[in-house]
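Supplementary Text 2. Reproducibility record for the structural model of the 224-residue chain.

All settings were left at their defaults, and a single model was retained for analysis rather than an ensemble. We include the record here because the model underlies the residue-level annotations in Supplementary Table 4.
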Amino acid sequence: MRIYENIYLIPSFVNCYLIERGDYCILIDTGTLKKARKIIHNIQTNFPEKPLEAIFITHAHLDHTAGLKTLGQLYGSKIISHEKEKPYIMKSEKMPARDGFIGKTFSIFSNLLSGTEYPVDQIVTDGEVIYGLKVYHLPGHTPGTIALEDLETRALFCGDIIDCNKKGDTILPPKKLFAMDYDQALKSSIKMLQASKPSAIFPGHGKPITEPDAAIKLYLEEYS
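Retained model, structure tokens:
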């Protein structure tokens, strides 16, 4: 579903985004195995002659990476993440757990909740621009969480460093339950919104906001 200029949303409980470029396309997060089939259908329907050049992973949680092997093997795409997220995507290390009772409970499942045992081809750093996307390294939700700003449209792909509500008019803070370090994640979300000046916000969860100025102002007033 085309939602913004050259951007296509593949929605469900986790959002994935296809960006169409001149002679190729880019995917941000893969979602579940079921979502991978929807992504393939969208590519075949909207730009069948354009290769899926690259897949960016905003963070290694399984709801954002479970389709990685299916898509990567089918299209031969370059897989891109932050260095600190690479071992969790590849399952060479377990995702670190939170402190406290909830963290200890989640640690039992941490290796199941992260990664797909699929290789990462390229790592990115804060401020780097690749495929027309500016990288923001935003630790807290996970150590290597990134957001990506499309310099062509100024659309901001946020992963889980923020959420949005179901109406698409309110920015919500990162979920405490799933953040490795909630205080750091909140600081990262503020940093992102202060630095990026986005024309649209595309979250990992919730409805995208295509006129975000008022929502950004309210968020920064409440949480800064």
